[in-house]
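Here is one chain, start to finish.
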Amino acid sequence: MSPASEALVREAQAARPQTVRGLRLHAKAATYAEIALPIEERPLRPLAADEVLVEIQAAAVNPSDAKAATGLMPYAVFPRTPGRDFAGTVVAGPTSLIGKQVFGSSGDLGIRQDGAQASHLIVEAQAVVEVPAGVSVEEAAGIGVPFVTAWEGLRRAGLPKAGETVLILGLNGKVGQAAAQIASWRGAKVIGVTRREEPYAGHASAPVEVISAADTDVPARVRELTGGKGADIVFNTVGDPFYEIGQKSMAVGGRAIFIAVIDRFVTFDILAFYKGRHTYVGIDTIALSSIETGAILRDLAPGFAGGFLKPFPIKPSAIYPLADAHAAYQAVMGSSRDRVVLVPGA
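Its structure:
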């Protein structure tokens, strides 16, 4: 290590804060509107040998953050600091990481243990990933859950390759956009389904064919676009509302990915399932630890560094200080399509 780097490490360790200031959930709320998010200060515990202390510069707000605050996740603990996705600077921990700008996500953070919507976060060193060049700290904070969910679904279904078709139900949602980016980066043909007539809202490495479910026979159109074959992978980001059209659009040997539900029960056609030699994959990223999630983000990082993947744009109107966290949560659970982030230092 150079003398300049050693000095930076000594300075960072000496300036290590003794307290953390952040949001605090003390009890589950009856409704999203009643989520209470007071800002509190509490002592920082000592770091373990395999941990880092990250000074948080941006933390995304996900729908799962709000759902966990209302008791929809029975394993969520109280009291706790919420927040699964983060980006910031390492200020204590292994010398090789101090001063680096990093980002991360987790199924544990903000739900089973204290999360990222605070001034600082303690997390395993293996859980953090360097922010790719050209990506802002706010954009890095917004990568987490949507891209991790999309990658994990496609990985477990068998990553798409050139010549395959990926059908994405709920294309313009954040997971849908992330799946479209990854699939097109991998060379697959991407078809997306939206509830109404609208263009694709995100980035892709190739054109994305969009089908409106409001006025189109989706399975028939998918067959037309694939020469009668159907989709090799159906990524259903919506759940039961699109279940039937997804299953009718699958190719023989196709794989279906499920990540969400509105009504738990659907009519399951066992004959079509086994005659079609289909595979169903269920994805719950809350089951992933911080380290497991960090490994996924490392797999994705070359895509962002190479420009094949792009983070979601973060609008100034979607950036909130911690004091306005209630408004940020309401925006996420309301009609906003923006990626919303909290900035603890604002």
